[in-house]
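Annotated sample (chain length 560).
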Amino acid sequence: MSRSETPEKTELAAEASTSTSTRSPKYGDDPDSALDAQAALVMQKGLLDDIIDGIQLGVVTIVIISLLFIAIFAGSLPTVFPVTQPIYDFVFSIPEFVASIPEYAAMVKDGFPTSLDEVMLLASAFPGWLAELLHTLPYKEFVLALSWANYLWETHLDIRQRDRLHEVRRPQAISSFISRQAYIEANAYGLDQSSLALIQKLFDQLTNTAIIVYDMVPMLWAIVGAGMEAYLGFGAEYEITQSLLFLMAASLVSSVISLPFTLYSTFVVEKRHGFNKQTIGIFFSDMVKSYALATFLGGPLIAAFLWIVTKTGSQFYLYVWALMSGAQILFILIYPTFIQPLFNKFDPLPEGELRTSIEALALRLNFPLKKLYVVDGSKRSGHSNAYVTGFSNSKKIVVYDTLIEQCATDEIVAIIGHELGHWKKNHLLRMMVAAQAQIFMLFFAFGSFVGEEAMYASFGMDTMPTIIGFIFFQYLYDPLSNVLRFGINLLSRLHEFDADAFSKKLGFGGALASGLIKIHVENKSNLNPDPLYSTYHYSHPPLVERLNAIWDPNVAPKTE
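Output written by the structure step:
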């Protein structure tokens, strides 16, 4: 046995070796007609891949044709085709926007401080400079540019990941413990998800662009206002009421638009790969429950937010932050007790080896376990999970019935050891603090935009309702939100490594490794993610990275 190997790793490799004894010249693994056929389907590039492969040529062609079209018609384009007026205005505003970039860059360079006095002077002048910038910023064009830049970046990552999913030869790093069949099935599932996601993201991007370009948010606001006045007798002074009705209408429209994608994902993709267990009745029942909860819990919260912004002046963000922080803590408290039981059935984990082992582990770690549940996750999906919830001295451990079906007792206990590692290391508290910091930054930044008339006018509003301002502001905040989300994902991945090491130190290293492998195989998780894609998107480290850390001889398990 080499120094880099452990007994657990060697055992897993021995188990997998039974399916890798010979090599197929075509696919690099043992020949099997059924698997070869499935591998051929995974390797095959269909219409969507052809579109992706030709997209650069297509974009270049479209740009050339568009420029020729504009050059031929010039200023008469909106007259000949009135529907193109917003697009025409946007296209001809780009050169002006681009031309202003060097000017802003020169201003930044000339104004860069070189002494403490200059820093203090800059700090005192910053509010005025920011106000001037916000008065003159081309908001709509800026938002569209940011939106498309973000879409193209994330699509680039999706395509990189899709190329990985077309592979059928297992990487050497996983070939010793992941069977050929498991790898091909996981990639087939990933490709189906990828195909749907690429189409839906393009549809969503085009829809959002149309909403912004054609001022559909002000249009819906006006329609809701007219209906409110006609049927309820409420005028524009009832801004909070109109805001709530507007959000309900926008949510309904959004749900109807996205419903075909959701149905296809649930009843075609998930069912095709053996995960979906719910009926169409359960699906729509869950949807109605979700809307009811959003209305009864989210409605009062949004109303309170709007009231605070109206009544507390320029420092409203402090009060809103306190409101949202309290709401987050309250939601964490009530979710496992009052909300999740609306969707799933929770039963006490039956007496037996698993319950005894989990209770013994909780006692060993002085974990204040009050309730130990098994939840009927299999009612809706074949995916598995386990988690720890609760505050102070009233903690609960919840195990999905699918996890019990998929893993052995020692593996489940090792996974619970990982979850208790999150508790022991205060990971939940850290994530809550990070979330609170994000919430504070969001509303603090919103304070600079909520009264900015130029922003509302740029998006076609002739009034300045707070909820509409918040929607427009979120368009601007999205890039920073993505950066912060990346930071949160990075912190989450560090926590996962930390919890894995905790479980290993309890003596569960081998069981945790085999349990993680089973979960990834049973859930058909991505077994060979693109490094850039996983770094940007994943809140959990890829399987190989976690196993390498568990098998690291420098992290020695306890002997007791």
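Annotation: The two ends are 25 Å apart (CA to CA).
Annotation: Residues 141 and 342 are 44 Å apart (CA to CA).
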